[in-house]
Hints:
Blueprint: H1 4-15, H2 25-31, E1 34-39, E2 44-51, E3 54-60, H3 66-83, E4 89-93, H4 105-118, H5 121-128, H6 135-145, H7 149-159, E5 164-170, E6 173-179, H8 199-206, E7 214-217, H9 218-221, E8 235-242, E9 247-253
Parallel strand pairs: 1-3
Antiparallel strand pairs: 2-3, 2-4, 5-6, 5-9, 7-8, 8-9
Helix pairs in contact: 1-4, 3-4, 6-7
Amino acid sequence: MKIPKDTAxxxxxxxxxxxxxxxxxxEIANSLNITxxxxxxxxxxxxxxxxxxxxxxxxxxxIASEGKRxxxxxxxxxxxxxxxxxxxLFSDTDKTLSEWFKKGNHENEANYxxxxxxxxxxxxxxxxENKKLSLSLxxxxxxxxxxxxxxxxxxxxxxxxxxxxxxxxxxxxxxxxKASKDFPFTWIPKDSKLPIYTVAGDxxxxxxxxxxxxxxxxxxxxxxxxxxxxxxxxxxxxxxxRVSPTGIISCLWTY
Length: 255
């Protein structure tokens, strides 16, 4: 079994990759004898057909975001490097963000590969050293690594200095969350209604979009968490943004 992080580092080393601007993902795919095609895919963001030591990656032509396209392409390259002896065809369906954590082992491995290849741990930690967490920082990192805001926030959870939680809300309901190990709260019921007195609540219910992080009462988000009885006066920073007409990402961190 190939380890995603080791596979990503091995590809970096073989290319002489030192920074995200050294090579485009298209150039890297071509160096691996992978042909890239773009066309409209129904229900799929990308797919790869593998035959021996060559492959064909097809990317959904409707993907407009460079960061999302790069992640899909890196994901498919991960399949090529790690799974060519398992199956010959991988088709990655266009799942909503609410299903982010519901994929099988091969999909998770390809995601881990893509994350490590696009935002290697050593370089990522160097870029966030001694910097305060904010959406502006994440946007700067996203621009540097050519990744999406969401993928960059998720990477920050693993290696950032601030305890942080990311919550995905779809149609006003909490669909998933991911937090760093040191974040003080853990419990928000799945499919629970978005709390009104939060930054995300303001965006969803009142169409008010805050440009800067706002302090909110932790109890608004974590009224059902067992820790809240000891931390009723706690405040958290919150900043959020829309990722689709129905989807909102809310980012919470301690101060």
